[in-house]
Amino acid sequence: MKEILDFLELDREQMEDAFLKNDFIGRTTSSYFAMIDKTVTNGLQVKEILEEIKLLSEYQAVLFGENIGEGGSMDVAAVMRHPQMRIYALVVKKSLLEWTGSFHETLQAYNMYEFLCRVAAETAVYGIPCAEDDNGTAPKDICDETDQTEGSKELCGVIDQTGGDRESVRKEKITVARTFAYVARLHMVRLKAEGILDKVFSRLIDYMAELDCSQEFSDVMGVMLDSFAEFEKLARNTAPYLILVGDETCYSVPKRFAAALSDELADLGQAVITTDGRHGEWHTGEDSNIAIPPILKGVVGWQMKLDIFRRMACPKYQFWFDNPIFYNEMFYDLPKEYYILSQDADYADYIKRYYGIENAIQFPPAGEDAGYAGNQDRPYDVVFVGSYRNQWDVDELTDEEREFYEYMKCHPDVNFEEGCRQYLADHTHIGESYDSNHIRNSLERVKNACRAVTSFYRDAVIETLIAAGINVHVYGDTWQNFHSEYETNLIRHPEVSVEESLEIFGHAKIGLNIMSWHKAGMTERIANIMLSGAVCLSDESSYLREHYTDGEEMVLFRLSELSILPRKVLGLLQDEDLRRRMAEKAYERARKEHTWRKRAEEFLALK
C-alpha cells in the first residue's frame, strides 16, 4: 500500500538546503511529503498529530511553526505577515508542486519561508502554532497555541554580526535581504490587487530593520523593481516548463513522449504546463493567440516548427528525431539559447557544424516499461512495428538523385553526409575540399534519393528474413503494398497504437528495429523492445556499438552484410536459454539507462 506521507528529518542547517530537500522530493513516492526540523520534533510525532486531527483530507499543506500568529487557514498574505516565523515542520501534497515548483536552489537563506509563500499563493495552508519546551524540543502537544515565545534571532537565522569581517557580514545581509525582496516582488501584483500590499510590505520592512538589513533590503528591492531581468533570473529557478504537446503526427509518438517527460518532471518537483491540459493551466486568447506565461524555466518542443519558440524569452529545447537534411529551413538563424536534443549524434554534429547551434547534442528518447518483461507467453518469433515505406518511385528520381541512390545502395554503412562527400570525391576528382554550403546544398538536391534508399533497405531486411522462412509480424495497412514471393511468411496485422505496440513487444521473442539511416542513433523502439523482455534485433549504429555488445544485450547486423542475418535470428530462436539471458540483461540496462525518468533527470542536468 502506498504511504500517504513520507518525511525527511533535518537539522537546522539542512532545513535551508534546497538541493537536499529537492533530492528527497524526487525520490519519494508518497502523496504528501514533510520537511521536519528534528531538533524540535520528529516525523512520527507529526504523523500522529495529522492522523488525530485529519487535516490532510481538507488541506494540501500544513505548517507547524513558531511565531505564525493564530494559525488556522493561512493565505499568502497571512504567511508574508510573519517573516519572523520558525518552521518546525511543513507538510505538502506532492502533486501541488506541478503548480508551485519545489525549493528555490538559488536563494541561500530563508528558502523554507520562500517556498511556503509560493505554496500559500496556490492553496490555503493550515497553520498550527507551536513552541519549544525548556529542553529545546517540541512538546507532544505540538499544536498547543499557548506559551509561544518571541522567536530568538538565532532561531530565525539572523546573521551573527559579532564574528567575521565586515565584508562577510555585508554579503550575508544581502543574501537574507535578497530572499525577502524576491518574495515581495513575486507576490506584489496579487497583494496589490487585494489591497493589502502596503500592510504586508510594511511588515517586511520592519523585520528587515530587526535584522539590521534595512539598507540591503532597500538596495535589492530597488534592483528588483527597476530591472525585470534581475527578478526574472531568480524567478526562473522555480518557474514552470512549458511543454508543447503537438498533434497526432507519427502515430502520436511525440505526443506520448511529451506526456511521459512532463509526468516525470512533475514527479521530480518541477512546475509544468502542457498545452493539452495534462499539467498546469494553459490559456488561449479569443483571437487564438497563445497566452505565454511571463516567466518560464524553459519551453520544450518535439520536432515542430520553431516560430512560437522565437516569442519566448527563456531556454528552448527542441527534441529532434529525423535527419536534419530534410528540414534545412528549420535551423537557420536560431538564437544561442536553443538546445537541439537529437537521438543521433551525427545529426547533432551536423546541426552544430552547419548551422552554428552550439547546444545541439545527442539526447535519445526513452522507452516505457509496460510490465511485460517477465512474460513467458511469447507466440511471435519476430515483430516489426513500423510502416511500409517504399513510397518513392525510383523512376521519378532525377539523374543526379538516381546516381546518388545507386551509390548509397553500395555504401549502406555510412551516413548521408559522409556518403555525399565520398560521392562528390569519386565523381568529380576534386577530393574532399567542398565547404559546408556545397555539401548541404548537394544533400538538399538529393534528399529524395536518401528517402528512397532508406525504404530500399527496410524492404531488404524484411525480404531477407522471410526468404529464410522466418515469420515476421508487421502492423498497419501500408504492408498491403509489400509484395514478395515469400510473403506467406509475412503476417500482416491491423495498425496498432503505441500502447498496443508495447503489448506486442511483450509477447514477442524478438523485436526488430530498422533504423531510418540513423548511423549514430538510439531510438525509442529499441528502448521499448528492451523494456518489454524481448530481444532487440537492430541494424547497428555507432551509439549501439559503443554502448552494447552484439550477442550480449541485443543482436546487431550490418546492412552491407544481410546474408548472415538469418543465421543470427535462427540461432537465437533455437536457443531459448540464450534468448532469455539476453533479454534479461537488456531489460536491466534499459531500466537504468533508457526510461523517461532517467531522461527527465538528464534533462534537468543540462546547462
Q: Mind sketching the topology for me?
A:
Blueprint: E1 5-10, H1 18-27, E2 32-37, H2 43-53, E3 61-66, E4 72-74, H3 76-80, E5 86-93, H4 97-100, H5 111-122, E6 125-129, H6 166-186, H7 188-193, H8 197-210, H9 214-226, H10 228-235, E7 241-243, H11 253-267, E8 272-274, E9 298-302, E10 316-320, E11 338-342, H12 345-355, E12 360-362, E13 380-384, H13 399-409, H14 416-428, H15 436-445, H16 447-467, E14 472-475, E15 490-493, H17 498-505, E16 508-513, H18 524-532, E17 535-539, H19 542-547, E18 555-557, H20 565-574, H21 576-593, H22 596-604
Parallel strand pairs: 1-2, 3-6, 7-8, 7-9, 9-10, 10-11, 11-12, 13-14, 13-16, 14-15, 16-17, 17-18
Antiparallel strand pairs: 2-5, 3-5, 4-6
Q: Which shape, going by the Cα principal axes?
A: elongated
Query: Counting H and I runs of at least 4 residues, what is the number of helices?
Result: 22
DSSP strand tally: 18
The main sheet orders its strands as: 1-2-5-3-6-4
Helix vs. strand class: alpha/beta
State Rg.
30 Å
Roughly what is the average pLDDT, rounded to an integer? Answer: 90
Number of domains: 3
User: Residue share in helices?
Assistant: 40-55%
Strand content: 5-15%
Distance between the termini: 38 Å
Explain what the structure shows.
This protein is an alpha/beta fold and about 600 residues long. It has 3 domains: about 5-235, no CATH class; about 240-360; about 380-600, 3-Layer(aba) Sandwich (Rossmann fold). It has 22 helices and 18 strands. It has a 6-stranded mixed sheet, with helices on both faces. The chain has a 6-stranded parallel sheet with strand order 8-7-9-10-11-12, with helices on both faces. Helix 11 (about 255-265) links the parallel strand 7 (about 240-245) and strand 8. Helix 9 (about 215-225) crosses helix 10 and helix 13 runs parallel beside helix 16 (about 445-465).
